[in-house]
Every structure is written in structure tokens, then in C-alpha cells.
């Protein structure tokens, strides 16, 4: 699956520029240490957290994209860090559970 398919099918709002890369799965967590040990390269990372440490963890793991749920939006310095790391950021109005169901219905695990 491609990022564009996830964006279009789940009605995401892009927060920064992005390339249409492959997505390999999904990982949902709000804990940086959990993301570092559990997420895999190419995952869609779904979270409520919007701080710089989250971007550092996402970069370390090499996630394909980050989706902030419940209309959470990071500060400008977080967007700048994500841009430098090449991590596309998106926002969903859905809560975590509702967004997870959408990804599941797309066949993502």
C-alpha cells in the first residue's frame, strides 16, 4: 500500500510535504520507548503525542508516516524537525480506535 492510498481512503490532512512511499503496516502507541522497541520501518505510526521526542523515535525506527489523531497538531518546531528528517505528518479528526478500525478495514496490520 502507498501513503496516498492511506491519505485518500482515511481522509487525512497533510501537515508537511511528503513523497508517496510504501507503507508496510501500522503501529499505534503514545509512548516513545514503546515506539522505539515495537514499531518497524515503513509503519504508519498512529499517536496522540505531538512533541519532538516522538519525531526522534519515528526517525530512529524509519516509519513511513505519522498520523496524529483527535485533531492533535504539533508545534512549528516539531514540523521543522519532521521536515529535516523527511517524515510526513498527517492529522485525523478520528479518535485512535476509530482510525485504527479504518486502517484494519484497509487490510493493514
Round the Cα radius of gyration to an integer and report it. 12 Å
Q: Specify the number of helices.
A: 5
Would you state the CATH class?
Alpha Beta
Quote the beta fraction: 15-25%
Unreliable parts: none
Number of structurally distinct domains:
1
What series of H and E elements makes up the topology?
A: HEEHEHEHEH
| Overall number of strands | 5
Helix content estimate: 40-55%
Query: From the coordinates shown, what is the CATH architecture?
Result: 3-Layer(aba) Sandwich
Question: Helices, strands, pairings?
Answer:
Blueprint: H1 3-10, E1 13-14, E2 25-28, H2 32-38, E3 43-47, H3 52-61, E4 65-68, H4 76-85, E5 89-91, H5 96-105
Parallel strand pairs: 2-3, 3-4, 4-5
Antiparallel strand pairs: 1-5
Helix pairs in contact: 2-3, 3-4
List its salient traits:
109 residues, alpha/beta, Udp-n-acetylmuramoylalanyl-d-glutamate--2,6- Diaminopimelate Ligase, Chain: A, domain 1, five-stranded mixed beta sheet, 5 helices, 17% strand
Structure in words:
There is one protein chain. The chain has 109 residues and is an alpha/beta fold. The chain has a five-stranded mixed β-sheet, covered by helices on one side. Helix 2 packs parallel to helix 3 and helix 3 packs parallel to helix 4. It has five helices and five strands. It has one domain: Udp-n-acetylmuramoylalanyl-d-glutamate--2,6- Diaminopimelate Ligase, Chain: A, domain 1 (3-Layer(aba) Sandwich), CATH 3.40.1390.20. The chain is globular. The mean pLDDT is 97.
Amino acid at each position: 500500500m502507498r501513503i496516498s492510498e492511506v491519505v485518500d481512503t482515511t481522509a487525512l490532512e497533510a501537515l508537511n510535504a511528503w513523497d508517496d512511499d510504501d507503507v508496510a503496516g501500522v503501529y499505534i502507541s503514545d509512548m516513545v520507548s514503546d515506539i522505539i522497541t515495537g514499531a518497524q520501518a515503513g509503519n504508519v505510526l498512529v499517536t496522540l503525542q505531538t512533541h519532538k521526542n516522538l519525531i526522534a523515535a519515528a526517525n530512529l525506527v524509519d516509519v513511513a508516516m505519522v498520523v496524529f489523531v483527535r485533531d492533535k497538531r504539533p508545534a512549528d518546531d516539531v514540523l521543522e524537525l519532521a521536515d529535516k528528517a523527511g517524515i510526513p505528518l498527517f492529522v485525523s479528526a478520528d479518535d485512535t480506535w476509530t482510525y485504527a478500525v479504518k486502517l484494519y478495514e484497509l487490510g493493514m496490520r
